[in-house]
Amino acid sequence: MVDSKKQWKAWIYLAPAIVLLLVFTVWPIINTIRMALLDGYNGMAAIGGKTFAFGVDNFRAVVEYKGFFTCLRNTILLCVITVPISTLLALLVSAALNSIKFLQKPLQTIFFLPYVTNAIAIGMVFAAMFNMVRTVRVVQTAGIVNNVIEFFGGTAVNWINAGSTYWANMTVLIIYIVWNALPFKILILLGGMQSINKQYYDAAKVDGSSRSRILWRITVPLLSPMIAYVVITGFIAGFKEYTSIVGIFGEKMGPASDAGRLNTMVGYIYDALPSNDYGRASAAALILFGIILIVTLINLYVSKKQVHY
Q: Is the pLDDT at 248 greater than 60, yes or no?
């Protein structure tokens, strides 16, 4: 406890952080709510002195937008598919890393590299890998993924180019998002595994338990707080997915033959900004916030029943 007579020193130390939070976090949130509740709010028109009435027209415009449910569907699909897969893979990789000693540190570094790599740049690499036809000095060559498929006797797949199917595009996105989400989850889960008391494992070995039984009966229950954390943060990150799609498909958010096919809620918000339609963008941001809040509350409710502290 800080002596009440010296609390002013603590407030001085906290003042810079508090000011930054107020300016860059609290005020933007308040301003977003304000703009969302001003019907037809436009940034340039507001600068010119135009006034706007309070209402819910911005929310109505978002819901009635013809591509809104496409954005919502894509966002939910990416979350529902990628979060369980990435969490399970991270758990298995963490268990494997925790069980070896030789080259453990270098392998941890390798697995963590995607976390510190630019998402757009890696998205462009994935686009080249899954490209069906790539011109190199007049010679037509397939991307590395199709080269591997053809090497094993398969037929090249049109993953991302014009004329590709929706699920071919989604497959590429899912692979990229899962790969990109693994490093953070591995870091959290591996740290949790290394903090588990070794006596549990020693007792299990004495009883002759198999490795799979130890993993699912000892490691997973004791690791449940960390698993709940990575699941919740995974859903939050999934609902904000945008950069991976731009990196692979560009700003059109889809193949050339069907632009906007893979748009998400965050993409919809960005689409409204060039026209200064801040009211509609703010309303979409609040709708997204509400969805994330509901999903997070559901996850917290479930975790209270399943997590063992």
A: yes
